[in-house]
Amino acid sequence: MSGASTLQVGGPRPYLLHVGPGLLSDAGLLARCLRGRHVLVVTDDNVAPLHADRLVDALTRPGLTVARHVLPAGEHEKTLARFGEVLESLARLGATRDATVLALGGGVVGDLAGFAAACWMRGIDVVQLPTTLLAMVDSSVGGKTAVDLPAGKNLAGAFHPPAAVLADTTILRTLPERELRAGLAEVVKYGAIFDAGFLEWLGANAGGLLARDDAAVTEAVLRSCRYKAEVVERDPYERGERALLNFGHTFAHAIEAEQGYAAAGDGLNHGEAVAVGMVLAADLSTRLRLARNEDRDRLRALLERLGLPTALPAGLKPGALLARMRLDKKADASGLRFILWTAPGEARIVTAVSEDAVLRTLEAGAS
Ligand SMILES: NC(=O)c1ccc[n+]([C@@H]2O[C@H](COP(=O)([O-])OP(=O)(O)OC[C@H]3O[C@@H](n4cnc5c(N)ncnc54)[C@H](O)[C@@H]3O)[C@@H](O)[C@H]2O)c1
Ligand SMILES: O=C(O)C(=O)C[C@@H](O)[C@H](O)[C@H](O)COP(=O)(O)O
Ligand SMILES: [Zn+2]
Prior knowledge:
Pathway: Metabolic intermediate biosynthesis; chorismate biosynthesis; chorismate from D-erythrose 4-phosphate and phosphoenolpyruvate: step 2/7. This protein is α/β, with parallel strands linked by helices. The chain folds into 2 domains: 5-174, 3-Layer(aba) Sandwich (Rossmann fold), CATH 3.40.50.1970; 177-364, Dehydroquinate synthase-like, alpha domain (Up-down Bundle). 45% of the residues lie in helices and 18% in strands. It contains 14 helices and 11 strands. It starts with a strand and ends with a helix. The site of ligand LNCXM5UN has 13 residues, from strand 7 and strand 8.
């Protein structure tokens, strides 16, 4: 394999992240990621016709049975029902405990297939093969797996770290423009919470990233994976600092659920909701005198430069969004917990956040 970089995510069960061109055709690397005789490739109906044959060809060898499970694409399909269908496919395959699920897709496929792997026979290997920028920089790393419920995002899930992650950067060539931008929202998140210098780098390289310049995109993926790997290694089960990765997500998840997970085709996707959510979280931070207005405005300007939305979509009711937030996974007996912004590159977890301040932020957020 040429031109690939490898990072390790440490912890109780360390694994490697490989990032580089052509990895999905690397039969040797793929073979090293497998243990038993059964492989289930879980993918979606946009990715399958573009990339699944190449992967299955590279996997083919005597004694290995490879089956495919193709999900309908979209956040609104990240459901318990679709999760159950993946388990049925594992049963039809006769998957034993040493079987491997290969999650070939964006974060929806990765989260759902990872959750199925976590549950089949109480846990089999999943190898994450991310095909979106968002999945490469975020969802394929760290072991959070889940499905959405009508009541809220990712409410049923498990921590199930992958056995390996293979991010084949050439696969991003077929990614729609809107999805590329969505991935950049999570990239901006790392700069916002961990590294002011990375925010500057993103501003300087916005054009190259949007033009899919290989060097710029690969650097963004590697730097993002390093930030995530470091925090996940220290706090794999989100007992503490890992929650910083949720910057913008309390608002984002409420928006996504309230929009019915974009089932009608007109809602924000996850990355877009995170962009709006980060601006709202920064604004809430200024109202609570933690962050400066100029910094919030610069964050908003960077997101807009990357073609991301920064205002609440019309028609969403602040009271309904606030009610959604009470079921956020960070909330506890003291009330709402938010990741608030203190300065570029710095954030903190704040408990018992005033609902009144959140409501005022939401009311101002539509403009
Ligand atoms: N587990 C985690 O830590 C974590 C982190 C961030 C996000 N997430 C989850 O990830 C999900 C969002 O992931 P996403 O943004 O990748 O969305 P997605 O999986 O819905 O993919 C976006 C769209 O791009 C298509 N697509 C994917 N790869 C393609 C390719 N190479 N070429 C052409 N089309 C392609 C998909 O079919 C889909 O239509 C959300 O459910 C979010 O909650 C999880
Ligand atoms: O890995 C994490 O931890 C994150 O919070 C990453 C987020 O970008 C991601 O959207 C995650 O799925 C949110 O997790 P949740 O626990 O709030 O459902
Ligand atoms: Zn996210």
